[in-house]
Fold this protein.
Amino acid sequence: MSHVAWILITGALVAASCAFVGSFLILRRMAMLGDAISHTALPGIACAFLVSGTLDSFPMLIGAAVFGLLTAFLVQTLHQSGVQSDAAIGVTFTSLFAVGVVLISLFARDVHIDLQHVLYGEIAYVPWNQLIIGGVEWGPRAVWMVGGTFLLALVVIGGLYKEFKLTSFDPAMAAALGIPVLLLHYVLMGLVSLTTVAAFESVGAILVVAMLIVPGATAYLLTDRLGVMLLLSMLFGVLSAVLGYFAAAALNASIAGAMTSVAGLLFLLVFCFSPRYGLLARRRLS
């Protein structure tokens, strides 16, 4: 398969997987928690390197996922203790992110775990990092990592679709019906953590935040049905990845940056022209 094809496949998988789990963050009004988890993965990556002594993807994935869950736990605990949710997120992610910076500066300064590598990523290099089993190349590692986490999210959320739907729209009723609301919250946060970390290699942590939020926010303006919203968010994500790649090729610009810019442009168009919730539609009704 060609270099370009692998880039498009990776970008589409990243965008679709992030949009899928990110839609639930939007419905739960926890969009910025995705930003927090993407940043607090840094100390997880640093700790994984210190423990394993390797830069292999699997230890990094585990380390970052553990710190993603820790972030969700600390934010939830602070919020239940009386701290406002936005303040709880800000305190948690800045503190843990700073710990990651300190750990890397102390113990990994001579290793290629710099902030640019972790936070920005470079999807153009993804096809060169192949998964080799038995001397045979099976495609880029990023494709397997992102594809595996995407499949896991589809299976978990698909199997518990009604529960996730009810806890997203009415957690009080879900609790009254005996649904473990807090457990499902941490399951979702775990999926967000895994999805975020798996996408590091291709687009980096900062741009993952956009893919977590923008496609879902765009779909939210077009429908009131969760199933349709999930499908539309993934469609917008994949469209952003494909159009973004060709825009980057034409402009000789950052691929991941172009993908995110296209996602923002699609959101702007829908925000203006959505038949029910668009800016123009609201002005006509007023």
About this structure: The CA atoms of residues 127 and 140 lie 5 Å apart. The chain has a mean pLDDT of 84. Residues 3-205 form a domain with the ABC transporter involved in vitamin B12 uptake, BtuC fold (CATH 1.10.3470.10).
